[in-house]
Amino acid sequence: MKNLIYNFSIYINFFAELFALVNPIGMIPIFMGITGLQSTKERKKINMISNFSASIILISSLLIGNIILKFFNISIESFRISGGLLIIGIALSMMNGSLINNLKTQKEKLPYQKENISIIPLSMPLIAGPGAISSTIIWGTHHNTVNNIIGCSITILLFSLICWILFQSAPFFIKIVGQTGINILTRIMGLLLMSLGVEFISTGIKLIFLKLP
Predict the structure, then answer these.
(1) What is the 3-state secondary structure (H, E, C) of the chain?
(2) Cα(209)–Cα(188) distance, integer angstroms
(3) Cα 195 from Cα 7, distance rounded (Å)
(4) C-alpha–C-alpha distance, residues 144 and 122, integer Å
(5) How many CA atoms lie within 13 A of 188 on its CB side?
(6) Block means of pLDDT (10 residues each) for the chain, length 213 residues?
(7) CA 170 – CA 44 distance, rounded (Å)
(8) Contact, 56 vs 156, CB < 8 A?
(9) What is the pLDDT, as a whole number, of residue 155?
(10) CA–CA gap between residue 90 and residue 67 (Å, rounded)
(11) Model's pTM, two decimal places?
(12) What separation, in Å, do the N-terminal and C-terminal C-alpha atoms of the chain show?
C-alpha cells in the first residue's frame, strides 16, 4: 500500500511538472491565433493530431531518452542541471510575459500551412517543447522500472487528453477567463516552474558532489 501511494505521488508530480512546463492554459490564445482561419471541423482535427503527436514524442523521450544520453556519454546529473537552466529560462519568460508575445511573433513571421500546423508549431515545440522533453527524459531515467515507465506513459496520455479538452473548449474558456486571467495564470505557472528548475539544478549538483572521490 505504501509503495502504491509513493508511485501514485510520482505520477502526480510528473503530471504537475508537465502542466507547468507546457502551460496549456497560457497556450489557449496561441492555439486560437494559429487556427483562427480554420473551420470548426478543421480546428478539431488539428487539435487531435497535435496532441496525439506530442504524446508520441514525449513517450518516445521517456522510453529511449536514457539510451540517447548514454550514446552521447552525457550523465543524468549534467542533464538535470542543463534541463533545470532551460526550465528556469522558460519560467522567466512566462513570468515577464514575453513567452506568449514571442510565440505570437513567430506565428506571424512563419507561413504555416493548414496541413503542417498540427505538427509544427503546435505539437512541437509548443506542446512537446525542449523543457517538456528534457523533463520527460529525466523522469524516465530516474524512475526506470517497468511499472513506473508504464505509469508515466499513462500520465503523458492523460496530460495530452487534458490539453485536447482545453484546446477544444478554447473559445468558451477565453470568454470566461479573459486575456487578463490567462496572463495571471501564466505567471503563477512560471513561478511554480522556476521552483522546479531550481530543484533540478540543486539535485544535479548534489549528485555530482556525492560521486566525487
Answers:
(1) CHHHHHHHHHHHHHHHHHHHHHCCCCCHHHHHHHCCCCCHHHHHHHHHHHHHHHHHHHHHHHHHHHHHHHHCCCCHHHHHHHHHHHHHHHHHHHHCCHHHHHHHHHHHHCCCCCCCCHHHHHHHHHHCCHHHHHHHHHHHHHCCCHHHHHHHHHHHHHHHHHHHHHHHCHHHHHHHHHHHHHHHHHHHHHHHHHHHHHHHHHHHHHHHHHHCC
(2) 32
(3) 22
(4) 29
(5) 10
(6) 63 91 82 73 91 95 87 81 80 71 52 62 80 87 86 95 92 76 74 79 85 74
(7) 11
(8) no
(9) 95
(10) 26
(11) 0.73
(12) 38
Lookup result for grid cell 505504501: 2
Over residues 19-36, the pLDDT tens digits come to: 988 888 878 877 876 776
Alpha-carbon span 34 to 106, nearest angstrom: 11
62 contacts 153 by C-beta, under 8 angstroms: yes
Residue type, 65: G
Burial class (CB in 10 A: 0-12, 13-18, 19+), 122: buried
CB contact at 8 A, 77 and 173: no
Q: Which three cell numbers stand for residue 97?
A: 510575459
Cell of 147: 511499472
